[in-house]
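Batch manifest, entry 17 of 40.
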Amino acid sequence: MTTPKLSRLELRIMEVLWDKGDCSVREVQETFPEEGRPAFSTIQTTLYRMEVKQVVARAKKIGNSLIFTPLI
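Output type: structure tokens
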């Protein structure tokens, strides 16, 4: 299997997941500096697209929060 191409934002999200392990969208968003922090919906949409690329997966759901885990 070839590794899919990742954008800068996708790579940054993967680094968060590799460092912290399974994370919610909010936890990923809060790792970005306040100045220039991407919106919640931007991180959420990016994670959904990464799920289609099969680089992350939904590990579980806690309340309304989806928890994502890295697959690569």
